[in-house]
Design a protein that fits this description.
4 helices; membrane; MAPEG family protein; MAPEG-like_dom_sf; transmembrane
Length: about 130
């Protein structure tokens, strides 16, 4: 039986990281009484952006990472892609929440996120071509 130990560890970190992002949105909603949308509140908009952007990238990445691990990708590739995603999403969220949402940290977060997708997507593209010829 193949075990997805690295994927499980990365997925655990990413899942637990979503909790504070979600709590920050909920707390701001309670403070402002805005329970749907943003009603022009820029702080709530940034908090929602950090949470929703995280949710847009992370689930698909975990799926790709699991397929890579099942396909026999090298441990370094799986761990590097996972670490890149964790760091990338952390930098991106931090920049949205702790600054005005612009700056090098946000750009670095996106570069790391794209690096994670390039590693996993690139590996799976290569692996699928090799597997198809066997």
């Amino acid at each position: 039986m193949t075990q997805l130990t690295i994927t499980a560890a990365i997925a655990s970190i990413l899942a637990l990281s979503l909790i504070p992002l979600s709590i920050q949105v909920g707390v701001k909603r309670l403070q402002t009484g805005i329970f749907f949308g943003e009603a022009g509140n820029s702080d709530l908009a940034r908090r929602r952006a950090a949470q929703s952007n995280y949710v847009q990238y992370v689930p698909f990445f975990i799926t790709l990472l699991a397929i890579c691990e099942l396909a026999g990708a090298a441990t370094w590739l799986i761990a590097s892609a996972g670490a890149s995603m964790v760091l990338g999403r952390s930098l991106h969220a931090w920049c949205l929440l702790a600054t005005n949402g612009t700056g090098n940290a946000r750009a670095a977060g996106m570069i790391l996120t794209f690096t994670s997708f390039a590693l996993t997507g690139g590996y799976l593209g290569w692996w699928s071509m090799i597997a198809a010829t066997n």
